[in-house]
Amino acid sequence: LIIFLVQMVGGEICEEKTTKSMEIIISNVSPKVHLLAKIVANNLFVLLQALLLFIYGLIAFFISSRNGSLNIPSEITSIWDSLSASGLINDIVSLLPMLLVLIILSFLAYSLLAGILASMTTNIEDFQQLQTPIVFILLAGYYLAIMAGMFQGSIFLKIAGYIPLISCLLAPTLYIMGEISILDILIAIILLIGLLYLLVRYGMKIYKVGILNYSNEKVWSKFIKAFRKEE
After folding, report:
1. Are 229 and 210 in contact (CB under 8 A)?
2. Is 166 within 8 Å of 188 (Cβ atoms)?
3. Tens digits of per-residue pLDDT, 168-212?
4. Burial level of 199, CB count in 10 A (0-12/13-18/19+)?
C-alpha cells in the first residue's frame, strides 16, 4: 500500500511537471494547497481500497460459512487455538487502535516525502531514481521485522522500532514478541508526528521552489540547493 501510495503521489506531480500543466495549476492554487490536496486524496483512496478489501473478505467468509462451503484447514485452527490460549489475540486487539494510528501517520509521512522529492523531477526517469531510497527504507523495516524473531533482546532492534517510516512495520512485531510495551508504541507515534512536523515546515518550502524548477541539474543537487535556499 505504501509503495502504491508513493507511486500515485509522486507520479501525478511528475506528470504535471512533465506536461507543463503545473504552471497553470499553481497560478490558481497555492503550492501548499496543491500538495495537501494530493496527499489527502491519495491517502483516502488507498485507505478506502484497504477497507473494501477487508469488507469483501468478511462478506466472502460469511457467505461461505452460511452455505457450508467454508473448509478451514486443521493447521490454521490449531494455530488459532494456540494463539488464543497464549493470550496473544488479546494483545493484538489491544494494539489495534494504536497500530491504525501508526499506519495512517506513516502513510502521510511517506506521501509527503514522495511529493517533496517528486517536485524536483522533470521526467519519469528522475522520479524512478527518487523512489529508490524510499523503497530501501521500506525494505529495511520489512526485513528487520522478519528477522526480529531471530534476534530477541536485541537493543538495536528496540531502537530501530522507534525510527519513523519503519516503526509501522517493526514496532508491532516487537510488541507482539513482548520486546516493547504500549508506551514504546506511543513514543514511536510521537516521533512520527515530529517527522511530519519537520516535513510540513521545511518540506513545503522546498516544494514551492521545486515545482517550478525545470533545470537539467541532477535531482539531488536541485534538492540540496532548494533546501539551502529556504533555510
Report:
1. no
2. no
3. 899 888 888 888 888 888 999 999 999 999 988 888 888 887 787
4. buried
